[in-house]
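>> received
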Amino acid sequence: MITFFRKALSSWIALGILALVMIAFIITGVESPSMMGGGSTSGGTIAKVGGERIGGAELARLIQNQIDGIRRQQPSFDQKTFLAQGGFEGVTEGLIGGRAVEVWGKEHGFAVGKRLIDAEIAGNPAFRGITGQFDENVMRNMLAQARISEKDMRANIAGDLLRNQILTPVAAIAIPPVKVARPYAALMLEERIGSVGIIPLAALADPRPPSEAEIAAAYKADIAAYTRPEARVLRYALFGAEQVAASAAPTEADIAAYYRENAATYAARETRSLTQLITPNEAQARAIAAAAKGGASLSAAATKAGLEAVSIANQSREDYAKAAGAAVAGQVFATAKGGLAGPIKGSFGWYVVRVDTVTGTPARSLEQARPEIVTLLSARKSQEALADLAGRIEDAIADGGSLAEIAANNKLTVVETPPILANGQPVSAPAGWTPPAELNALLKTGFESDPSDRPTVETVIQEQRFALLGIARVIPPTPLPLAQVKPLVMRDIIAKRAAQRAKAIGEKVTAAVNRGVPLAKAMAETGVRLPPPAPARAKQIEIARAQQGGAQIPPPVQALFALQKGKAKLIPSDRGDALFVTVLDNVIPGDLATNPQLLQQMRGDLQRVLTPELGEQFIRAAGAEVKIKRYPDAIAAVKRQIAGQ
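>> returned
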C-alpha cells in the first residue's frame, strides 16, 4: 500500500546501494572478469575510500555475479538489459558506499574476529560436502574455479560482517511511531465520491469524406504511420537428434558397463516406512518405549511425554544410516514389520523407532534392465553428440566459414524465409506459406544482429534442437503507397476530427465545472447528445488491493485522488475512444475504527520505506566523513568492458 506514496525505491540505484552494503560474498556462479564482454580490465583504480583502493577487476567481478544471479531466474537477462536498467551505476555506488561504511567502522573501533569469519564460512551451504557438513576441499575447489583467493574471501566476509554490525542498529530505529503512521493509514481509508462525464468520440464523428487534398496532406504529415517496418530474410539450417542418430546408439559393451557401474540400482532393495522419536536422554526413551510396547502407539506415548513422533516414508538402509547413524539403521532394518527398535543412541540423541511397512524390490538382471539402460544411454549419447556437433559448427563459424559452407560440410538443409517482420509475419510470401514453429526462437537474434555479423548457433528446443542462423537480406522501412493505404488515411482523418472536437467539448465542460456549473448542466449545454454523468467512488485501500491483484484501475477513478473538492479534470481513455471529465464531489475522511489492524500494517509499510532511506543516508554520511575519490575514466572502462566494447 505504501507504494501509493513512495515508488522511487524501485530504482536500481536505491536497491543497488542497500543490497550491496548487506551483500554476502557470492561464491557460486562467479566468472573471471577477463571472460566477460570481450575485453579485460586494466586493474585500474575506480575509487579510493579513505585511502583504500577499489579496483576495476573487483567491480567487474561483482557486476558479473549480479548478472549471473538474475540470469538464473531470468535466462534471457543479459548485460545490455542490465546496463539499460541502470544496474551498473547501482552496483558501482553500492560497492563504493559499502566500502565507505567498512572504512568508517574501522576508524571508529568496529572489528570482526577470526572465529566469527570461520563460522560464516563453515555455515555457507556452498561449501558443504556429500555428508551435508562443511568440507574444506569443496571450499578450495570452488574458490579455485571462481579464481578467488581465500584471503580475498575472508576479507569480503569480514567487510560484510562489519557492515552488518553498523547498519543493523540503523535499520532497527526505522520503526515509525503510531502518530506518524496514523494519518497515512487514515488516508488509505479515505473515500472519494464524484461523477464522470463521458464524451465518446463515436458520438462526434464527422461523416463528411475528406477531400483529396486533405488525404494527401495527412499522408505526408504522418508518413511514419503508413511506413512498413524493417523486414528481413533469414537463412537457417536446423540440426538435432536426427543428425546424430547414427552415433547415439549404445553398444553392447556400453550397456554392460553401465549395468556393472550401477549394480546397486538394479540389486534387490528394501525400503521401510517408519515412525521415529528422538529424545535427549536414555531414561526418557526407555519410558516411552515401554509405554509403546505396552499397547500405546508410539505417537501417543510421545505426546504424553510432551514430545512428537514423526513419520518417515520409503527409507533405504543407506539413506537412513546417513541421518540417524549406522547403529540405529542396523537395528531398525533388523526389526520385523510392526516391531519397535530402540532405545538406541544415534546421531541426534536416543532413538525409538516403529517399523510401519517393509517394501522389497527384487533384483533385475541385465536383460530385464536393458530397455531402460538403452533409453538412458541413447539420450545421453545423443546429447553428447549434439553438443559436439554444435561445438564443431561454432568452431567453423569462428574460423570464418559461411553459413552455406558450414551447412554443406555438416549435411544440413538450409531454409530461407520470405521477407518477414520482427513479429514473424511475412511481408509477402508464397501461397500457403505459414511461419514454421522454429521461427519464434530465431526472431530476436535475427532482428537484433547486424547483417554483417557472422552466423550464430541458436537454441530452438533446449538440449534437443538448434539452428545455424544468418541474415540473407535486410529490407529497410518502406513507406506504403498512398493508393494502398488511402482507406486508412481517410479513417484516421475522420478519427482525428472527432478527437479534436471531443477535446474542445471536454475542455469547455471542465472549465464550466471549475467555475461552479454542475457537471450534468455543463454537458447538456454543449448541444451534443452525450451519456448522462456516471457516479464514481473509491477508497485508496481498494485501489491498492486491486493493483496488487493485477487489476487495471480506470483513469477517471484514479483522477478522483488528484482533485480538490468541486474541481474537474479532463482525462483521456486508455483506448483513445473517449474523453472523461472527472469531478470530485465529496471527500469522506477515513475512520481507523473500521479497520484497526491497518495502523500496524501501515507502520510496517513505512518501516520498509524508512529502512533503506536511513541506510542510504548513513552510507552517504559515512562516505562524506571518510572522503571518497572516484576515477570516472576507470569506471567508464569497466562499463565498456561489461557492454562488450
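>> The longest strand covers residues 350-361.
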